[in-house]
Structure formats: structure tokens, C-alpha cells
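We include the entry.

. . .
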Amino acid sequence: MLLSIWFFFSVRGREVMMLMKEKWPKKRPTAPLFLGFLSGLTLLYLLCLWTFPAGGDRLLQTKMVEAAREMVRATEAIKDCRRQAGVPIDPENDPNLTGLIGLRRSIITTTLGSLGAKRTSTNPHLAALMVYFFHQLNLQPGDKVAIGASASFPAALVATLAAVKVLELKPLIIFSLGASQWGANIPQFTLAHLYRCLQRSGIVREEPLAVTLGGDQDVGLDMAPEGRKLLRQQIDEAGWFTFQEPRLAANVERRLSLYREAAGSWEKLKVFVNIGGNYANLGTDARILSLKPGLNQVAFSSPTGQGGVIQAMAARRIPIIHLLYFRGLATEYGLAWDPKPLPHPGKSRLFQLIRLRARWFISLNLIYLGLILLGGLGQQLFLRLLNMEASPKPW
């Protein structure tokens, strides 16, 4: 449609130029100004479409609410699993009693962590937001989604898997068991236990492609020795594939090989979801800190030997969903920061944002078509004036 409009007015523009040359042969024609205006307006329109994507349809919001409810169901299942394992929930640090908040410190703790960020990630609307991101990429049932997660944000993994289930996507998962403060760092209930719990409750069916220790150099150098031993034992008992590779480039290549083999080809891999700050996923290039939270569709890379899985995927033009900086994510997409109590599914500024962007889309189309119409009418009037002046006088 845009090409048709541009072609029509470009033809009329050339007609205007010819008449102007006949009327004022020594003057520089000004008709290209209109064509420049039309081209610039079209480019601005396309830019606005990219910035304010349409996303307010009822089916999308229905799926978003469904994913939020699925995360609530998953959280209830995790609480039951914790009770059965004899691991109580601390109401002081986990006032919403989600069962997704860990300890300040344990033998499998890797680094410092923000309690507010961990509690923010337990919001069921994070699952709704993941549906929105997947919708922006136009993912269809059966599409393959690569997921790389540390145990630092177990709730973010639950949210992602809830969205994947609702949209009937195919998850290809690699996760690590070491966790920062307040993550899945309870030795008696690690991410290994949590993942098995999700499998039993039907949230996810797939086995992980691999499970690693995580932490420093992805081999747990910042954990207590007994913590590393415990996690190796849990991986062995689960029967999961694992590897220990402290060299960044070799570790990244191992992961890429697993993803590519499971997907069948890079073309079949639609998105990479990074959760937390695993060493191999982030790499060591400090520029990774500038990656915005949420959906990124810009190709970028890092110097040889410094890039992680994120950079390798982005270099292949695979979109990245980055779930690490939760303060920024909450601000950008209307998620409540450290909410108490957790909001009811469907009651969030996130949904207002989606509707607002939909109104922007409608208004933008009306403004664009209105300006095109006004410009076209102005051009037609100018053409008529030229024709009148160029016509031979009857006297």
C-alpha cells in the first residue's frame, strides 16, 4: 500500500515538474520537495511502527492472562514440593509465600543478589510479559526457543516456561545450579529439585539439554567445595548431561553445538532467552552491561574470546530476550517493583501499556493517512493552478 501511494504521488510530482519547467524554465522546480516530504513521512511512519508495535488485540491479552495464571499454578506446585521436601518458606524474606526465594547465604551461593529484584521476578505478570515478547516475534506453535538460565532467578525460568507452555512452543533448555543470594540457593531445594517439580506438575515436559554447576567460570569456583560436590551429585542422580569447561570460548561452543543440534539448524531457532548472569551466557565483554532488559533484535558481537552465548546468538541475528536487570524491566514494561501482595492475573500496568501502544498504532495510521491526503490535495490544487496559467488565453 505504501509503495502504491508513493508511486502515485511520484508520478503526479513529475507532472508538476514538467509544467513548472514549461512555465518557469529558468527557475529550479520545487516539486521534489513534496516527494522528499512524502519519503520522509513514510520513513517516520515506519520508524513509529517499529517503536510502537500493535499489540492490543484480544487474543494476545487472553494468552497473557493465561500465562500469568499458569505461573500462579506453577508457584503453588513449587510450594507443595517444598512442603513435601520439608523446606519451609521464610515469610520475612518471602512475604508472598511463593517458595521461589532462597537464602542470604549457603554453600551453593555464588555472588551477591538483590532481594527486591528476586521478589519482583515472582510477579505472575512476568509470564504475561514473556508472551508479549514472543508475540512481538510472531512465534507460532512448535517454534523452538533456546533458554539459558542460572539458578539466580528461578521465578524468571518458571515465567518463561509458563509462557512457552501457553503458546505451545518447544523449549531447548540449558541451566546451571549455582545461584546468587536469594535465588535457588537452598541446598535441600535447588533448581534441580524445582525443575523436577515443574515436570511432575506438567509445566514442562522436556529434559534439559545440559546442566552445569554455574558460578565462577561455570565450574563453581566461588562456591564452597562441599557445595560443588552436592550439585554434582544432584546432576548425577537426575541423569542429566553435564560438562565442566572453565574456558569461555570452549564452553560457549559446547552450548551452541547443543542448541544447534536440538533445533536442527540456526534458522529454526527463533529466539534466545537469557535468565540471570551465567558466565558462559554473558561472556566477559563489559559491553554486555549495556544490553537493555527485555527484547533485543539488534545484531552485535564481542572481541574473540570475550563473547558469550548471547553475543553468538545475536551475531547470527537471533533475537535476545534478556532477563537480568529487573529494575529496568519493571520500569519499562509496567511491572510492579517488589509487590506485596502479588497482583491478580490481568491487573497490571503492563496491560494498560499494551492497550496504549495499540491506540498509538490506530492514531498513527490516521495521522499518516491524513497528512498524505492533505499533501495530495495540496499538490492537486497546485497542479490545477499551473494548468490554468499554462493554458492559452481566449483573447
